Amino acid sequence: MMTDTPNGAEAAAPETAQAETAPDPAAQLAKEAADLKDRLLRTLAEMENLRRRTEREVADARSYGVTNFARDILAVADNMERALKALDDEIREKSEAGVKALLDGVELTERELIKAMEKHGVKKLEPQGQKFDPNLHQAMFEIPDESVPAGTVVQIMQPGYTIGERVLRPALVGVSKGGPKAQASAPADAAANDNTGK
User: Which of 111, 112, 155, 169 could form a disulfide with 174 if both were Cys (CB 3.0 to 4.6 A apart)?
Assistant: First the structure.
């Protein structure tokens, strides 16, 4: 009988071990709930990011959807401007009434074209006299001119255009050289002088 007792104790011990190692159903459900909540929060975050990205893409499409068309139209605008500049005021005054009417029509067409481009966010850059900005301008040559600060746009070969916040085409410009340094460095020099005096 003694042998029965140890066997009975051994049989009870594995059952107790199984009971201790068996997962608690409440803890298991809590873990599954936490996992599901985490997955739900991640999915909601992904959906929010997708919504924002889609809104941004739609806004970009509205703003910049006409970019290729606008680039093609720039050549038309350039040619109209060149045609009008080719005729000076003296030639216009000596022209017959029919030619004057034609020139007036071309000028009106150019104004309407510029107005239509501006309506769709395309703006002409007017950099004459401004400091050269490599983000907006493309320097074609330098012109010695000591009357203006170095790096100033002194000649425009071809106008530039922006569409919204983006450059559609940089302005092709001539930039001054040999003049006084640009004013932007003056505050930095003053600050350096203030620091040395302390």
Answer: 155
